[in-house]
Known about the structure:
alpha+beta; Dna Ligase, domain 1; three-stranded antiparallel sheet; 8 strands; globular
Amino acid sequence: MTDPIADYLTRVRNAVRVGHKVVEIPGSKMKLAMTRILKEKGYILNYKVEEDGVRSSIKIALKYHPITKAPAIRSLVRISKPGLRRYTNAEEMPSVLNGLGVAILSTSLGLMTDKEARAKNVGGEVLCYVY
């Protein structure tokens, strides 16, 4: 696997489109941080890390509207790719759907959303947009 972030986003995107309740993803620190951000922002119900000796996996419970069954995650878009990295500073921070969506950034202070990065006045690599 050459791009673990793209693999993570693709697994979640495919599970949402098919309507799965739970998706299992191979674990890593970055994937766990991205999952934590999705949980904090209300895009997923919950997650659980399962350790199996050397390997770990993250089980993510996806969130759907109780009546219409519409998914909470409408779109997951990878922005910075291995062939073309996208960086931004605090002044030129992207706004996803005029603030309704979330941009996940990798900064020197760790993974955070665009709003948190703006508040801390740090820039970094724009990993993905979620809305």
